[in-house]
Design goal:
Blueprint (H helix, E strand, L loop, with lengths): L8 E14 L6 E14 L15 H11 L36 H9 L2
Antiparallel strand pairs: 1-2
The structure holds zinc ion (ZN) (2 copies).
């Protein structure tokens, strides 16, 4: 424990990573490159402790990238999501519609296939 070192190390830089997204509505997956500006105080009063003179950048890098990601990613802004009855991807139009039959035979079949 060193006394009188209140500063820590201020790290700035640009983080580039490829992030795997899952659409919050239709569960489609895709990868996207993100670039995030990092500015983090290591040690001192910052969130990340210094281990001796070694700065572990993994945690602040990971947190910075995670913070930059959308909480509810969507494959596209107007994504229609999945049909709540049959689970079909409504973006593809593969759902036949269920106006008169809330529980179709296909829905029962799907429950069997996907417990
Ligand atoms: Zn989607
Ligand atoms: Zn449907």
């Amino acid at each position: 424990m060193l006394e009188g070192t209140s500063g820590g190390v201020f790290v700035t830089g640009r983080v580039e990573a490829v992030v795997r997204y899952t659409c919050n509505r239709c569960l489609a997956e895709w990868s996207e490159a993100v670039a995030v500006d990092l500015s983090e105080l290591l040690g001192g009063e910052g969130d990340y402790p210094l281990d001796g003179n070694e700065a572990d950048l993994e945690a602040p890098l990971r947190d910075t990238v995670l913070l930059a990601l959308p909480l509810l990613p969507l494959c596209r802004p107007d994504c229609l999501g999945l049909c709540s009855t049959c689970g079909a991807d409504l973006n593809t139009g593969s759902c036949p519609g269920h106006d008169d039959e809330p529980e179709s035979p296909f829905a029962a079949l799907r429950h069997l296939l996907e417990p």
